[in-house]
Design brief:
The chain is of the alpha/beta class. The protein is about 40% helix and about 10% strand. It has helices spanning about 10-20, 25-30, 35-50, 55-65, 75-90, 140-150, 180-190, 225-245, 285-305, 330-350, 360-365, 380-395, and strands spanning about 10, 55, 135-140, 200-205, 210-215, 220, 245-250, 255-260, 280-285, 310-315, 355-360. A four-stranded parallel beta sheet has the order 3-7-10-11, with helices on both faces. Strands 4-5-6 form a three-stranded antiparallel beta sheet. The relative contact order is 0.10.
Length: about 400
């Protein structure tokens, strides 16, 4: 049975079939004693009397009858009205963002080249004063570049740490964090919900012997005592930052990681170059693991800071190595697809309305003609600024 607005319902069975196609169950109505039962029964009675009802009339009668039942309308009327609204608005967008930008289109709002620094999010001006020193970030090297702009605009919330060194501009010295599982475990460790093994590797740098924390990328110490003293301050700083921030922003670049073999299954920051290779094993996060990690990140932050908005995106910079595939190009494609799918799925099903997606990856790969630096892998300054504007539009 094909249902159009002008379809004529000539038999009681036609009415029931039409309602079934619309996802409305008469048995459910009778059970609930809903007012729409009377409307449906009246329509059925009319068809039994040999009168024809147009589908449009049936829907309008249901909407009117149910709307009169309660101030906000009952479930049936809201369901119908919402379906109609979604259908009508699916392709309507004044700024053209619901269409793939098409410079050949006859519609004025579509005449935007996808390579003209086009912003995927409706540009909004951020209130810098209200966001001053209120943003905390975590993520990959790309996020570190975004941090420089946030810091320059006095938007980044930071806490200095004694006894450790790091080349990165992150709020606390948690180093670069490449995947969502590492971020989840770090947050759980900070709040005492998970144990983290104590593992360091020793390496020479600029003629100095340094200790590297295997879970905090590029965070170094000159001695074991320095490491232990800093660890306590680092945990205290991390908890304070999460509790005090208005916005928490992440960008992840990888699904490949290494998990410790000591039973904790804790992800290392990098490949185990300077420690016993038997101490960790390679692992590639699945869609479900990414999805679960994002949901868990949201749960942890909401548990300690209900007023915080959480923004998650995917680092557009490609991988340069892999332990899972024959080449890094395929590995990168798999990683970005898995991260995007897992993250957006988590956001759709999250119980929290403060979990949002930032289109970092899409804005670089689809909305810029020349985003790459001379090495053809890292982003140039113009691209970083473009991604930063995209982020501010999301926050604003």
């Amino acid at each position: 049975m094909e249902i159009e607005w002008t379809t004529q319902l000539q038999k009681p069975e036609d009415v029931l079939k039409a309602l079934s196609i619309c996802g409305l169950d008469l048995g459910e109505c009778l059970h609930q004693g809903c007012v729409k039962t009377e409307v449906i029964c009246d329509c059925i009675a009319r068809t039994m009397a040999g009168r024809t009802i147009v589908f449009d009339q049936l829907i309008n009668a249901l909407i009117q009858g149910c709307a009169n039942a309660t101030p906000d309308g009952c479930t049936a009327s809201r369901k119908i009205l919402n379906a109609i609204e979604v259908s009508r608005n699916s392709y309507i967008s004044v700024d053209g963002r619901k269409f793939w930008p098409d410079p050949t289109s006859e519609r004025r709002e579509n005449k935007i080249s996808r390579f003209c620094d086009y912003l995927l999010v409706q540009p909004k001006k951020i209130d810098r004063e209200s966001h001053k020193s209120s943003i905390v970030t975590m993520g990959s090297c790309f996020m570190n570049e975004i941090n420089k702009h946030l810091a320059s605009d006095s938007l980044l919330l930071r806490k200095s740490e004694r006894g450790s060194s790091s080349p990165h501009t992150f709020p606390a010295n948690w180093g670069t964090i490449f995947n969502p599982l590492s971020a989840q475990y770090a947050l759980e460790w900070y709040f005492g919900e998970r144990e983290r093994p104590e593992m360091l590797w020793k390496s020479s740098h600029s003629g100095r012997e340094l200790l590297y924390d295997v879970f905090r990328e590029d965070v170094t110490f000159t001695s074991l005592e320095e490491y232990k003293l800093n660890q306590r301050q680092h945990i205290s700083n991390a908890k304070a930052l999460i509790r005090d921030c208005k916005s928490f922003i992440c960008a992840f670049s990888m699904t490949e990681t290494w998990l410790t073999n000591d039973g904790c299954n804790y992800p290392l920051a990098r490949a185990p170059w300077k420690i016993n290779p038997l101490a960790a094993r390679p692992h590639n996060l699945t869609f479900s693991e990414v999805e679960d990690a994002i949901l868990n990140i949201a749960k942890i932050i909401n548990r300690h800071n209900r007023d915080c908005n959480i923004y998650v995106g995917v680092d557009p910079v490609p991988l340069h190595a892999t332990h899972s595939y024959d080449n890094a190009v395929i590995a990168d494609s798999n990683a970005k697809a898995t991260l995007i799918a897992g993250t957006t799925s988590a956001i759709r099903q999250s119980a929290y309305g403060n979990l949002h997606y930032v289109p970092f990856y899409e804005s670089i790969h689809y909305c810029m003609s020349e985003p790459w630096a001379s090495d053809e892998r890292h982003l140039n300054k113009v691209a970083i600024v473009h991604a930063y504007k995209e982020l501010l539009s999301c926050i604003g």
